[in-house]
Amino acid sequence: MRGKQRTRVGPLASTGESAPALDVDALLDNPATEIIVCCGSGGVGKTTTSASLALRAAERGRKVVVLTIDPARRLAQSMGIEALDNTPRPVVGVQEGTGSLDAMMLDMKRTFDEVVESQASPEKAKQILENPFYIALSSSFAGTQEYMAMEKLGQLYRDAKKSGDYDLIVVDTPPSRSALDFLDAPERLSSFLDGKFIRLLLAPARGPARLMTAGFGVITNALTKILGATVLQDLQMFVAAFDTLFGGFRQRAEKTFRLLQADGTAFLVIAAPEPDALREAAYFVDRLSGEDMPLAGLVVNRASVAPPSELGADEAMGAVEKLRRRDGEPSVTAGLLRLHAARTRIVEREAALRERFSVANPRVATAVVPALSTDVHDLDGLRRIGGLLAGEAPSA
Amino acid sequence: MSTPVTSSDWPRVELHVVTGKGGTGKSTVAAALALALASRGNNVLLCEVEGRQGIAQMFDVSPLPYEERRIASGLPGPKGNAGNVFALHIDAESALLEYLAMYYKLGRAGRALDRFGVIDFATTVAPGVRDVLLTGKVFEAARASRKKGTSSKAGQKYDAIVLDAPPTGRIAQFLNVNGELAGLAKAGPIKKQADTVMTLFRSPRTAIHLVTVLEEMPVQETADGIADLRAAELPVGGVVVNLARPRDLADDELKAAREGTLDRAAIESDLRDVGIAVDDVLVDGLLTEAHDHAERRALEDGQRELVGEMGVPTYELERLPSGVDLGGLYDLAASLREQGMA
Questions:
Q1: ipTM attached to this prediction
Q2: Do A42 and B167 touch (CB under 8 A)?
Q3: Phi-psi bin for B80: left (phi > 0), alpha (psi -120 to 50), beta?
């Protein structure tokens, strides 16, 4: 199978798009590909796609680790990662060969704790880990998950370079509220740390000199009025304790950001053939190119498969009407024709949506993955999806 | 409608929170519910909090500002009388500035806060504050006596509010503002504000509806979401099953389709009878489509059973083959009302 030129056959051939086809196997086989990031809006199958790509790469000889964020329970079980211990574990059941596959599930809070522990003295670390602001920040702050995914990616990459355990890292991104969150995490952290407000909060700790000037009193008074004095104190203590770590955090965030821009990284934007998901995908493509991030292509999951016959939806519904007049009651044939008409309409709508996307983004290579009639929760399912991603005809 | 008006399952509810896993169509359901509630002269406010401008896209209007605007007439009631649907796009920054202006009359200090990046800090970085602001704004809009000069200049009052809320995985945390602030603000004005908001959310005036599709993961997440909400003592509303496959085949036909025992000769003769050119590609195709459909339907039935066991009222909306446009929203609204959700 390896290396053989494959042409698209079967249902995929009928998509009739202007977008070039995404050559998934070439991407996975290229030793220069070190990181693959799967991003996209929630509910489009990012986790399944990441896991399928990782498995396929491993079975084609790469030494792969896949970092997932929130896999479905049964999928996690089948990959042996339902225990959250924040370290990669070998996946059982991967085809024997030169490659290997490890998987891990991100534990956001633990990753954050580990960073604090590795950066601060034990005493200071304890102080930070117990601060109520830290607890809230590390477990519920909306951007923390994104930032920690980046942090873990950076760690994995550095470790892999040192140990040689992996030559490909596949990352699933958090189900973000919007496409922005993932890319903005480092930037947002930096601007937070550089923010005037933080410096303001640090001012008392650093001595009264500069910032006691214009507006400081006004600000503290206003904040006390809104937050109450204790909250402000807690916050000040947290920021002061965290101050020493800021530099390290920012440095690593920026490093990871540059790593993402490097040639060894490939971004895949994942979408479903729905207006919202494709709109988010277009937005992502735009952002990625704006940030000089290497975009490898678009994956459209769960595409409806075009029926083989040419019978149009309107003609089918016309026949349904004739059958109704003839029989006066629903028949199997009418039911089949209705199903056919509905599917044809869905396929047409999806094709139009994809066409619109590819007209607006003509150079984005695209892989279309047909919907399966069953859910995926084992390695066989992932293998099937991997095959479909690479453009193989769906096996019966 | 000629059918007698079914009474609503939620007569006392003023705040309908709609959540759901990504991709299940929660925004569509929220919009349809708002249309369904806006009858008999009732005014309904539809709010979004995730910065996506989804409402503007669904109703085909220009992007919404931080200002309540009338965007549509509701679905007419039995006597043809409709109400109005207003929409509000809530963003945390505007909500904070409005809050400060309303309660603190900060003046110069307010501007200074902005200059020092406090507004930015509070709305993007400070844990939990963002959610407190967003939910606080919904609370403000739900008040019986609203101040003027808020996001509604006239202080418009509403008979119902529909909130297009964050996804199921985050909903309990989002609404449980108290929990998020716990440990941070044990006293003080912010804490007091959070407490007041919580009394509304925990009261019978609120119902939190969960949208799902009949697939394994979303159904599992819905069950988890209900457990989370109950643990947080938040009132669970109904489950809306969205994008259900059409029921064009009867149960025995589905079984035959799965087993490949549909009467091929009869189907071919029917097709010829209504003037369709019959060949193997067509008939094989129809039978394969029926087989796939029957397989999916069997999976759906299994998931539907699980939804039924959740012990809350359920409603079902069919997948619209050509997607949801404005007309489609009204169809979905009518279906929700018929089923007693509004």
A1: 0.83
A2: yes
A3: left
For residue A374, the chain B residues in CB contact (below 8 A) are: 295, 299
A363 or A213, which is more confident? A363
* Mean pLDDT, residues B1-9 taken together: 61
Q: Does A324 touch chain B (CB under 8 A)?
A: no
B15-248+313-338 domain in CATH 3.40.50.300? Answer: yes
Write out pLDDT tens, residues A105-116. 888 888 889 888
Classify residue A58 as exposed, middle or buried by CB count within 10 Å of its CB (0-12, 13-18, 19+).
buried
Q: What percent of chain B has pLDDT over 70?
A: 90
Could you report the per-residue pLDDT of B224-253, keeping only the tens digit for each? 999 999 999 999 999 999 999 988 899 999
Nearest residue, CB atoms, B190 vs list A137, A188, A227 = A227
Which chain B residue is nearest to residue A223, measuring alpha carbons? B113
Contact A336 B290 (CB under 8 A): yes
Q: Where are the domains of chain B?
A: 15-248+313-338, 251-295
Q: Which two tokens stand for residue B329?
A: 């929203």
Nearest by CB to residue A333, choosing from B120, B271, B293, is B271
Q: Which domains does chain A have, with CATH numbers?
A: 17-195+238-306+361-387 (3.40.50.300)
DSSP-derived secondary structure for A35-54: EEEEE-STTS-HHHHHHHHH
Contacts of B290 in chain A (CB under 8 A): 335-336, 339
Kindly report the nearest CA distance between residue B36 and chain A, in angstroms: 23
Q: What angle do CA A86, A92, A97 make, to 5 degrees?
A: 115
- Cβ-Cβ pairs closer than 8 A, A with B, add up to 211
Tens digit of each residue's pLDDT (9 = 90 or more) over B272-319: 999 999 999 999 999 999 999 999 999 999 999 999 999 999 999 999
